[in-house]
Amino acid sequence: MLTLVVIGLLIALLYRLQIRSNASSAYESSRLLIDQIRSVVDSNEDSVRSLTASLREDYVTRSRAVSYIIDRTPAIENQITELAWLTNLVSVDEIHLFDSDGKLYSGTKPQYYGENLKTSKIFGVFAKMLSEKNFTMCETITNEVSGKSSMMYAICWNESHKRLVMIGITPMRLMNEMSMSQIDKIIREIPAYEGTEIMVADNESNEILGATS
Question: Lower CB density within 10 Å: C or N end of the chain?
Answer without folding.
Answer: N
